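agent> Task received from the user: take the single chain below, predict its 3D structure, and emit structure tokens. No templates, no multimer pairing.
agent> Plan: (1) validate residues, (2) run structure prediction, (3) serialize to tokens, (4) report one or two observations.
agent> Step 1 OK, no nonstandard residues flagged.
tool_call: predict_structure(input=
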Amino acid sequence: MLRWKDIIYYAKYGNPEPYEKVEKTEEEWRQELTEAQYQVLRQKATEPPYRNAYCRSYEPGVYTCAGCGQMLFNATEKYHAISGWPSFTQPARRGAIRYTFDDSHHMQRMEAICNVCGGHLGHVFNDGPEPGGLRYCINSASMVRLQDSREE
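)
tool_result: status=success, residues=152
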């Protein structure tokens, strides 16, 4: 289980190595992603609060990166944080997400980035529920929810 001190450590001293790297040109990204996905994943945009695909969605399954398909979160870690964006308590695995300090927009935040393709996902905060205390506030456009195989 990741805790805030782990996130700070990764951002300061280096993130876990990804199991693979996906690198594409900006033109390839533009062709493969929707406009909303491109804006969020490649341009670090933020979608409007509450008006996004997964904010109020709690179906079983897994959430994968819309850019590369890497598994990011299990639906079992999703919770109602009243933030306007999908919120999760833990990533699917320790090395799924890369962390970096983000002081844009006159705020100090911790950016969450796909560790495989480098796509911007959202941010992680230290005000989540126990036991981990983390709140991953993630843009819906950066993810795709895959149905749990037990649903079929």
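agent> Step 4: summary for the user.
The chain has three helices and nine strands.
agent> Done.
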